[in-house]
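Help wanted!
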Amino acid sequence: MIERITIETPEQGLFEITDRIDALVEDADLDEGLCTLFLQHTSASLLIQENAASAARRDLEDFFMDLVPEDNSLYTHTAEGPDDMPAHIKAALTQTSLQIPITDGELALGTWQGIFLFEHRWDGRRRNLVVHLGK
Amino acid sequence: MIERITIETPEQGLFEITDRIDALVEDADLDEGLCTLFLQHTSASLLIQENAASAARRDLEDFFMDLVPEDNSLYTHTAEGPDDMPAHIKAALTQTSLQIPITDGELALGTWQGIFLFEHRWDGRRRNLVVHLGK
Amino acid sequence: MIERITIETPEQGLFEITDRIDALVEDADLDEGLCTLFLQHTSASLLIQENAASAARRDLEDFFMDLVPEDNSLYTHTAEGPDDMPAHIKAALTQTSLQIPITDGELALGTWQGIFLFEHRWDGRRRNLVVHLGK
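Answered by r_m:
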């Protein structure tokens, strides 16, 4: 089964989408299976990360910002702004697709795991996620 | 089919778990299919890497240690020790889920590929891995 | 269903393989499903990236070259040349397996997404890719 959801990101950063995926899995009524998320973009990405401490989220955002500076002098593909090429690189370093098993009708996430959309463009976007639910 | 295994990591570093997954695949008696590994943690991760040279394993561990220093002055989320925030970042840079096709009843790994659990905390932990075996 | 393809890489860099995978999906005649790519190597990797601007591709290659220098003094596993250990590290930072949903008989890639094989060795190689196509 395939579902599609759109996520409006307000700005750069990590945004938790676990509730959105939980709801799809509940509706799918699969006792056991596999949930695959696929993001149809190359300037945003997916990540499973700690969902309790917001300081951990900020440190993660800061690490990627330092590792991949938004400095046009470092890149040749600069026509779409200083946040564009770093966005592609940060997407390459994280995930475009994620898989989470389904057990007892629910995502088998660990206690501290949340699913995040990692927006790499400054102004946010309308992001399309394709969700495959299989046995 | 879903299986669960636990892996006790003694300390930080890469630990090969290929044999554990091979055994699950053998028991599953699937001629052809897909094996998905999902680690229920955000301070350890999964990696498919070269399984022959232990020097390659150490160089890989060292690279990540240099890229993500265990230095509390770099992070704000420091309550759980200087290895905690770097652990989340190293997990973000590697994998929480992995997929390996099954052919002729076995994992279709390349000649030099092994499956590794990458422990990022100093003292090791009891780690839970959920394995989905599908057609 | 499992398919196998080989890709001859001429040299280091990103090489688009979307057409090769499109052709497999078309032959599979699946209306809806999931396509999993698995590369049987640890010195090359997979990436979904922007497929329009070749400057973006070069910037991405350059970023990884700067992040993981081909300098033997940094590594102990040097017997196979200065491009070998960096190859393993770049593979660890990107993907060995990728999943793309299939909708309406086609890969559900976004408008600007292409599938790339990322060759990390100087002289290129014959690379084996295992493709799983499931419902």
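OP: Thanks! One thing I noticed: Strands of chain C lie at 2-8, 13-16, 33-39, 44-50, 97-103, 106-107, 113-119, 126-134.
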